[in-house]
Design a protein that fits this description.
Elements: E1 2-6, H1 12-21, E2 25-29, H2 37-42, E3 45-46, H3 50-55, E4 59-62, H4 67-75, E5 89-92, H5 98-109, E6 115-117, E7 120-121, H6 123-129, E8 132-137, H7 140-150, E9 154-161, H8 165-193, H9 198-206, H10 213-224, H11 233-250, H12 255-269, H13 280-285
Parallel strand pairs: 1-2, 1-4, 2-3, 4-5, 5-6, 8-9
Antiparallel strand pairs: 7-8
């Protein structure tokens, strides 16, 4: 099976490399040519455009930043839709708007190009270790065909339902993650304000019912004041925008999400959009939420 991969950033690059290591033929396209260098060195072939890549692929995978980016590489003037043969499967790992996902899937379906929305959770470490959780929306038969490829990338693949449901599940994931991160920042900041060591507070919480993966990973970074980018704060800010949009459509109030969105908006406004989510603790410490 010939695979095409578009989007070779912090998540896409290791995912594409796993497919190569599994023995699949791989063509790649990157808007920044330098991003494709490690893949070319590992044996991937380079495509000059998404449409050219699609013309030589049985499955096209995308992992780009924003809804507009997905629309451009799939439906744009030189997009996948113009090169893909009928029956070519498109798998989008990006985290984007569920509503836009449905529109994109419909446009592709009109050309007999099936699509799966398959956003992932696990961050750069999960991408590097092929332990991602993949939340999939789309036809079950298409997923069955694609699953051996997804198994190269993740430890858990969950079919959520029709097109867009993978993105809704990812929004739920981001909501739980980010509210947990806010709680972690507040707990550590409160302990420090009363003279406790942040690392010891985290250690104590990790031993009880408050333990979580967020406390383990982001709490450690908060305690160590390590704000070097893992996933940039601006990406979480984007994701919470989708969460709150879904909540408005559903008539559901999510006050905790709104608080965290204000924190992330502040990080972006202060020029810290590339910092790690752990930087939330600085805003909590100085009482800044908007």
């Amino acid at each position: 099976m010939q695979i095409g991969f578009i989007g070779l950033g912090v998540m896409g690059r290791p995912m594409a490399l796993h497919l190569l290591k599994a023995g699949h033929s791989l063509a790649v396209y990157a808007r920044r040519p330098e991003a494709a260098v490690p893949l070319a060195a590992a044996g991937a072939t380079l495509a000059s455009s998404p449409s050219e890549l699609a013309a030589r692929s049985d499955v096209v995978m995308t992992n780009v930043t924003a809804t507009a980016d997905v629309e451009e590489v799939l439906l744009g003037a030189d997009g996948v839709i113009h090169g893909a043969r009928p029956g070519t499967i498109v798998i989008d790992f990006s985290t984007i708007s569920p509503q836009s996902t449905r529109r994109i899937a419909a446009a592709l379906a009109a050309r007999n190009i099936p699509m799966l929305d398959a956003p992932v959770s696990g961050g750069p470490v999960g991408a590097e270790t092929a332990t991602l959780v993949i939340m999939v929306g789309g036809d079950a038969d298409v997923l069955a065909t694609a699953k051996p490829l997804l198994d190269c990338l993740g430890r858990q693949i969950v079919h959520m339902g029709s097109h867009g449901t993978g993105q809704i599940a990812k929004a739920c994931n981001q909501l739980a993650l980010l509210v947990n991160a806010e709680g972690t920042a507040e707990a550590l900041a409160l302990g420090v304000r009363y003279g406790l060591d942040a690392g010891k507070v985290r250690e104590a919480l990790m031993g009880g019912i408050a333990a979580s993966r967020v406390l383990e990973v982001f709490g450690d970074r908060m305690a160590k004041r390590d704000f070097k980018p893992g996933m940039a704060a601006r990406l979480y800010d984007k994701d919470l925008g989708f969460v709150l949009e879904l909540a408005r459509e559903a008539g559901l109030e999510l006050p905790a999400a709104a608080i965290v969105r204000a924190r992330l908006d502040r990080l972006v406004a202060e020029g810290k959009s590339t910092q790690d989510l752990a930087a939330l603790i600085e805003l909590v410490e100085r009482g800044s939420s908007g």
